[in-house]
Write a structure and sequence with these properties.
By secondary structure, this protein is an alpha/beta fold. It has helices spanning 4-24, 28-36, 71-80, 122-126, 145-150, 162-171, 181-189, 239-250, 256-280, 294-307, 309-312, 332-357, 428-439, 443-449; strands at residues 49-56, 66-68, 112-114, 130-137, 200-202, 218-221, 224-225, 316-323, 363-369, 388-393, 401-403, 426-427. It starts with a helix and ends in a 17-residue tail after the last helix.
C-alpha cells in the first residue's frame, strides 16, 4: 500500500505542474509570475474587508450609461448616435455634481449625467460614497493613439472579442487562463481566514476571476450553499442510504484522481454544513431587494454571507456576481435602460444593506464588463469597443469624484481608435491594484498578482478612489 504522505505530495505536485503548464501554454510570463507567487508572503489581517465584483457580461454601452451633459459634449454625443441618444432634458434629474470637474487630455472640462435609470445611485454619489472611473480598459502598458496605430507597443490579446476580453479583464490573460486577479488575492489571504473555503465566493456560477493558484472559488446560489444531491434529504427515504453515499464519496482512495475527487466532495459537504448553520444564525436584513431582479438577489446573498463573516471565520473575502444581456448590437434603446435599472436597484439595495449591517466601510463593490461599446451607433445599437466607464461604491470610497481622464467626444478623435471606440487611459491593472491595496496586499505582491502593473509609474498604480 502506498504511503499517504507520498500520495498527498504527488497530488500537490501534479496539480501545481498542471496549473503551470496550462498557463504556460497561453503565455509564458504567466508561468513565471505564478511561480513567483510561492515567494509571496501570506497577508494577515485583524479586521474584516471584502470586495465585490459586479460583472456586466456582453460589453456595457458606456455612452448611454455616463452621458455627456455640458452643451458642447452633449451635442457631439448626439451627433454620433442620434437614434440612440437620450434627450438632454431627460438627463436633468441625474446630473452629477462632483467635488472637482473632470478634464480631458486637452484640459477641457466635462460634465456628465447618469442615465435616468441609474437615478437610485445618485444619492450615493452625492453622499460621497460612489466614485466614477473614466475610460478604463485592458492595457499592457500606457498606450497613445500613435503607438496603437503604428503597433509599436504590446496590446491586449484579441481585442474586441467577448470571451477573451472577459478573461483579460478578470485575469490579465486571454481565454484559457486558469487564475484571475481576485483569486490570486485570495491566495494571499486564505491562510488568515478561519475557513479558507469562504475566501473567494461566486454567486453566479463560475468565473476565472475567482480562481487562484491555491484558492478555489466557492460557488453558492442566491438561496445559499448547493448541497450534494442525495444528501440534502434521506436518499430513497433512508438516512442509512445517505450515510453510505456520503462515506462512498468522501473516503480516501489510492488513485490520484479518485482521491482528489473525494477530497473536493468532502470539502463541499463540510462547507455546506458550515454555511447553512452560519446563515441560519445571521442577523435578519430588512433592506428590500427586488425578488424579480436576479442581480439584486445575488447581492443579497453576498450581504447575508458578509453578515456572518465571523461565524465563517473570514477576515478577507472576494465576491463575484454578474448579469448578462449587455451585448446590444441591436435594441439598445429598448433593452439597455431596463438592464441599467436592474443594476442600479441591485447596487443601491446592496449598499443600503451594508449600512444596515454596519459594515459599509468594510465592503467595496465595483462594476466591470468585457469592454465598452462604440459611441457611433449602427442605427439600432452599438458595436464592440474598448474603454468604458465604471462605478465604485462603499463607505470607504472617496466618492463624489471622477478618476482618470475624461475622453474627448469625437469619432476618430485623440482618445478613440474609430467609431468612438475608446483607447483606455486607465488600465484594469491600476483598477485592481487600488482595490488590492485597500484589502491589504503589499506593493511587491501586487506586482506579482498583476503582471502589467510594473509598466506603470509607482505614483500611478494606486488611483486613490478607496
Amino acid at each position: 500500500m502506498k504511503n499517504p504522505t507520498t500520495m498527498n505530495a504527488s497530488r500537490r505536485a501534479f496539480l501545481q505542474r498542471a496549473s503551470a503548464l496550462s498557463i504556460a501554454g497561453v503565455a509564458t510570463p504567466w508561468a513565471l509570475n505564478l511561480a513567483a507567487m510561492a515567494e509571496a508572503s501570506a497577508a494577515n489581517a485583524n479586521d474584516y474587508k471584502a470586495i465585490v465584483c459586479v460583472f456586466l457580461y456582453g460589453g456595457n454601452d458606456y455612452g448611454n450609461t455616463l452621458v455627456p451633459y455640458d452643451s458642447s459634449n452633449y451635442n457631439a454625443y448626439y451627433q454620433l448616435r442620434p437614434t440612440l441618444a437620450y434627450s438632454r432634458d431627460s438627463l436633468g434629474g441625474t446630473v452629477l455634481n462632483p467635488l472637482a470637474v473632470p478634464l480631458d487630455s486637452a484640459g477641457v472640462s466635462h460634465q456628465y449625467a447618469l442615465a435616468p435609470e441609474l437615478a437610485p445611485l445618485l444619492p450615493i454619489f452625492n453622499a460621497g460614497k460612489m466614485g466614477v472611473l473614466l475610460n478604463v480598459g485592458t492595457l499592457v502598458q500606457p498606450t497613445s493613439k500613435l503607438q496603437y496605430s503604428n503597433k509599436t507597443v504590446p496590446l491586449p490579446p484579441k481585442l474586441f472579442s467577448h470571451n477573451d476580453q472577459q478573461s483579460v479583464w478578470q485575469s490579465s490573460a486571454p481565454e484559457g487562463a486558469t487564475s484571475g486577479w481576485g483569486g490570486r488575492m485570495g491566495d494571499l489571504f486564505q491562510s488568515g481566514n478561519g475557513n479558507a473555503t469562504f475566501t473567494c465566493v461566486n454567486v453566479s456560477g463560475n468565473a476565472v476571476y475567482l480562481s487562484g493558484k491555491t484558492a478555489v472559488q466557492y460557488q453558492v446560489s442566491t438561496n445559499g450553499s448547493v448541497p450534494l444531491s442525495g444528501l440534502q434529504a434521506p436518499l430513497f427515504g433512508s438516512a442509512a442510504c445517505s450515510a453510505a453515499l456520503q462515506n462512498l464519496v468522501t473516503q480516501n482512495r489510492t488513485h490520484l484522481f479518485e482521491n482528489e475527487y473525494t477530497r473536493v466532495s468532502k470539502r463541499s459537504i463540510d462547507a455546506n454544513g458550515v454555511l447553512t448553520s452560519a446563515l441560519a444564525g445571521a442577523p435578519a436584513i430588512t433592506t428590500s431587494f427586488d425578488e424579480n431582479n436576479n442581480l439584486a438577489q445575488q447581492l443579497k446573498m453576498v450581504a447575508r454571507m458578509i453578515s456572518c463573516n465571523s461565524a465563517l471565520g473570514a477576515k478577507r473575502q472576494v465576491f463575484f456576481v454578474s448579469m448578462g444581456g449587455f451585448d446590444t448590437h441591436d435594441g439598445l434603446v429598448s433593452t439597455h435602460p431596463g438592464l441599467l435599472s436592474s443594476v442600479a436597484d441591485a447596487l443601491s439595495s446592496f449598499y443600503a444593506a451594508t449600512q444596515e449591517l454596519g459594515v459599509a466601510n468594510k465592503v467595496t463593490s465595483f462594476t466591470a464588463s468585457d469592454f465598452g461599446r462604440t459611441l457611433s451607433g449602427n442605427n439600432d445599437g452599438s458595436d464592440h469597443g474598448w474603454g468604458s466607464m465604471h462605478f465604485m461604491l462603499g463607505g470607504a470610497v472617496n466618492g463624489q469624484r471622477y478618476y482618470g481622464t475624461a475622453p474627448i467626444v469625437a469619432n476618430n478623435g485623440p482618445d478613440d481608435v474609430g467609431q468612438g471606440r475608446l483607447l483606455p487611459t486607465t488600465s484594469v491593472d491600476q483598477y485592481a491594484a487600488t482595490l488590492g491595496k485597500w484589502l491589504g496586499v503589499s506593493d511587491s505582491d501586487l506586482l506579482t498578482l498583476l503582471p502589467n502593473l510594473v509598466n506603470y509609474n509607482v505614483s500611478a498604480r494606486n488611483l486613490g478612489f478607496v
